[in-house]
Specification:
This protein folds into two domains: 49 residues; 140 residues, Orthogonal Bundle (Arc Repressor Mutant, subunit A), CATH 1.10.10.10. Helix content is 31%, strand content 12%. The longest helix has 14 residues. The two termini are 38 Å apart. The protein is built from eight helices and seven strands. The chain has 242 residues and is of the alpha+beta class. The chain is elongated.
């Protein structure tokens, strides 16, 4: 099997898939009796990545594998394909997510100690339902509180390959800078996730005053969300390299 055909097969698989594909999955496209030569799939990925220079998409590797995603300079036009209502997260939700991402594993009590206010159970529950966080263990202290960490879904959503790709805290002025990537597929946005949008607005700042209340019914307003006000603005999906 020649390299040109292998490259076409890999490209077609990436375009057809509604989720990132790992190297193992790409190698699995070829039958055992006619496997892809060693290094040929990797060469195909390198060729496809280079071929994106003058195209409207990039081939990137995220936590769950490889995928095509729309480039930032054309994202605003492509995002018009999505018309779902936009979502803006509460300050409490963003602060909680940021603390888990940067200080994991971390308990709810430790999050409350840093933030200085109680963490509403709806915030943790909503993040878990979105599969952005999960319980990774329990602290060996009385009560054995749950330890929270982020998931591959979190990394995929924000276009990251690994936690080390998160921008340094010293450079993170606004958690909204971690904008979700716009996937190149026809699959619907996973349930509960904010739809891609081309408005250019970023999420509410983790440290901003007068944080916004989410328009998402799964993020109801509570006293512990520090008096957030309602908003219909949402996170913009764009190509970003933290």
């Amino acid at each position: 099997m020649d390299q040109a055909l292998i490259t076409r097969i890999v490209e077609a698989a990436l375009l057809a898939a509604n989720q990132p594909l790992t190297l193992a999955q790409l190698h699995g496209l070829f039958p055992e009796e006619q496997p892809a030569p060693p290094g040929s799939v990797e060469s195909a990925l390198d060729h496809l990545r280079s071929a994106c220079v003058d195209r409207g998409v990039n081939l990137v590797e995220v936590a769950s594998g490889f995928r095509y995603q729309v480039k930032e300079d054309v994202h605003a036009w492509v995002a018009r394909l999505w018309t779902e209502r936009k979502t803006r997260y509460t300050r409490a939700t963003l602060e909680t997510l940021a603390l888990i991402a940067y200080r994991q594993p971390i308990t709810r009590g430790e999050i409350e100690q840093v933030r200085g206010v109680a963490v509403n159970s709806h915030t943790i529950q909503a993040l878990e339902e979105r599969e952005w966080i999960r319980v990774v263990g329990h602290r060996d202290v009385p009560g054995r509180p749950a330890l929270f960490g982020t998931t591959r879904t979190f990394l995929d959503y924000f276009g990251l390959k690994r936690l080390e790709d998160l921008p340094p805290l010293s450079e993170l002025k606004d958690i909204g800078e971690l904008e979700p990537q716009l996937f190149l597929d026809n699959a619907p946005v996973p349930a509960g996730l904010p739809a891609p949008d081309g408005s250019g607005d970023s999420a509410a700042a983790a440290g901003d005053d007068g944080a916004q209340r989410s328009s998402d019914p799964e993020f109801p307003h509570h006293e512990n969300d520090e008096g957030a006000a309602s908003s219909t603005h949402g996170q913009a999906s764009s190509e970003q390299n933290p």
